[in-house]
Structures are given as structure tokens and as C-alpha cells.
């Protein structure tokens, strides 16, 4: 176990200090690329970091599984699995399926994992970021954010409310597949999600909007909109956040979890940030603009471009 901990920490250290870990760009810098969704994916998405991160995640799952008995199988997904993780802040779900899983023992499973990984946390670079009855939240190197779940196979019949949350992780693979399939049908989806997540990461007022919630809002926007350019979709996304009168309700495709919406207290600051972005970056994302300065990304409305 000690040797495996050493190897894992060495891998984490090499990833965090690698030139492949990209700096966080300004929003203006990314918007200059918005006419080419693939360029946005290249700038914000995981590329050369993906394989090292995959080894890191598999290593942590192996370490966690070593602390438990009767492990049936594991799954690595979330934003990492859906290819919507930012290259400067990787989010992932690690799911451990247990034989004879019992909801009443959830805290005991978590205690076993935490005790087994105690040396991992004491070595630095790794912190317990939070917990709930069904999940341990782990931050590794201020670069990787992990939700570690212990669960059983999803029952055919949705259980009572007090047990339902413990099986939400069992549905993650199916939900990830659904969003991956949607992304394969809509080329602008991944770029829009990455742009939205980057915008979210730039201001604390947007942190109440979870990464997963943001992806569902982007999916809904594309389904309901006839807009097809990334700039116009991002403009519509910000308008939804700034001026919608609801709490950003989104249907959750995970049948064991509730639909999503943000709290009333968080709604105002988030709306203010979105409205500020629409105002401050109007020249970069103004809807229906078709001409742009190649050096700064300034958008020119067709009627403002005078013929020579």
C-alpha cells in the first residue's frame, strides 16, 4: 500500500507541474476563438493531459477499493468521462459498486475509505473537500476535483426517498452515455459547455451553478433553439441566466435524483454576473454578428460594416 501511495503522489506531482496543465485564460481570449468551436475545445478541453489524468483516477480508485471488501466493479465518469472537463480544473465521478450494498452502512463505507486513505491526505496536495451521506468530495493538487461514491446496482423500482439518493451514483454511467450521445449529434454542445464552465470559473458568484446543472442547461438550450453558432448560443445562455424569472430549473435524467435548480439566495448574484458579462462583452458575443476583428475578436454588426 505504501508503495502504491508513493507512486500515486509522484504521478499527481508530475501532472500538477507539467507544462501540459494550461493556465486559466481570460474570457476575451477564449471568445476570440468562438467562431471555431473546435478551437475552443482545444483551448479549454483536456488533450495531452487526458491520459495522465486517467492513470491518476484509476490509481485513486484502486487505492480506495483496497480499503473496502466485496467490491464488485468501478466506474470513472462525470465531466471527465463526458469530455467536458476543463484542462485547468478536472472534475470526475468515481463510483465503487459493492456487493450486498446497504444504504444504512453508507457512513461506515465512507469511514473505511477515509481511514484507508488517511496517509494520502496527510501527505499534502490532497484534501477532503466535503462530504454527504452518499459521497466524499476530494480535491487533488487544486487541479482535480473528485466525487467518490459507494453504491450498489441500480434497482429496477425507484426506492423510497430516504434511500433514493444512495443509488444516484449507480445511474451516472447511463446519464454520461446519454450526454455523450447528445454531444455526438450536436457538434456545438461540448464547446458551449466548456465555454460556459470557463465563464463560471472566472467569478465566485457563479459557483452555485454546478458543473452538471450547467451541462443540462446547455443541452436544453440547444434542443429548444434554432441558433447554430457558438457565439449566439453563448449569448442565449447568458440571457437565460441573467433574465429568466425561474431558478434555472432543469430536468435531471438521473431517475434517482431530483430535478435541479439553484437557491433563491444564489439566483441574484448569478443573474448579476451574467448581465455584467452581456454588457461588458457585448461587442464579442452580440447576437447575429457575422464579422470579427481577427486580433481582438470585436464583433461588427453587418449594418455597421460599410462597403468599400
From TrEMBL:
Q: Which InterPro entries match?
A: NT_sf
What domain of life? Eukaryota
Q: What is the protein's given name?
A: Uncharacterized protein
Q: Which organism is it from?
A: Durusdinium trenchii
Amino acid at each position: 500500500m505504501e508503495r502504491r501511495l508513493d507512486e500515486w503522489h509522484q504521478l499527481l506531482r508530475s501532472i500538477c507541474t507539467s507544462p501540459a496543465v494550461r493556465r486559466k485564460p481570460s474570457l476575451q481570449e477564449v471568445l476570440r476563438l468562438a467562431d471555431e468551436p473546435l478551437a475552443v475545445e482545444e483551448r479549454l478541453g483536456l488533450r495531452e493531459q487526458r491520459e495522465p489524468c486517467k492513470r491518476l483516477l484509476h490509481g485513486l480508485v484502486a487505492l480506495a477499493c483496497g480499503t473496502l471488501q466485496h467490491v464488485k466493479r468501478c466506474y470513472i465518469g462525470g465531466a471527465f468521462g463526458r469530455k467536458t472537463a476543463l484542462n485547468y480544473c478536472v472534475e470526475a465521478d468515481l463510483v465503487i459498486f459493492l456487493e450486498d450494498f446497504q444504504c444504512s452502512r453508507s457512513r461506515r463505507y465512507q469511514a473505511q475509505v477515509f481511514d484507508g486513505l488517511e496517509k494520502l491526505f496527510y501527505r499534502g496536495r490532497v484534501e477532503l473537500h466535503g462530504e454527504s451521506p452518499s459521497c466524499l468530495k476530494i480535491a487533488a493538487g487544486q487541479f482535480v476535483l473528485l466525487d467518490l461514491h459507494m453504491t450498489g446496482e441500480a434497482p429496477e423500482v425507484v426506492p423510497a426517498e430516504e434511500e433514493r439518493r444512495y443509488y444516484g451514483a449507480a445511474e451516472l454511467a447511463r446519464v454520461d452515455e446519454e450526454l455523450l450521445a447528445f454531444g455526438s449529434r450536436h457538434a456545438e454542445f461540448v464547446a458551449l459547455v466548456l465555454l460556459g464552465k470557463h465563464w463560471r470559473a472566472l467569478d465566485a458568484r457563479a459557483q452555485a451553478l454546478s458543473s452538471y446543472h450547467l451541462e443540462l442547461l446547455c443541452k436544453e438550450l440547444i434542443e429548444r433553439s434554432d441558433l447554430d453558432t457558438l457565439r449566439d448560443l453563448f449569448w442565449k445562455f447568458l440571457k437565460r441566466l441573467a433574465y429568466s424569472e425561474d431558478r434555472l430549473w432543469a430536468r435531471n435524467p438521473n431517475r434517482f435524483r431530483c430535478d435541479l435548480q439553484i437557491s433563491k439566495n444564489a439566483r441574484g448574484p448569478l443573474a448579476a454576473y451574467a448581465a455584467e458579462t452581456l454588457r461588458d462583452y457585448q461587442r464579442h458575443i452580440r447576437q447575429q454578428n457575422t464579422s470579427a476583428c481577427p486580433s481582438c475578436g470585436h464583433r461588427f454588426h453587418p449594418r455597421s460594416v460599410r462597403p468599400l
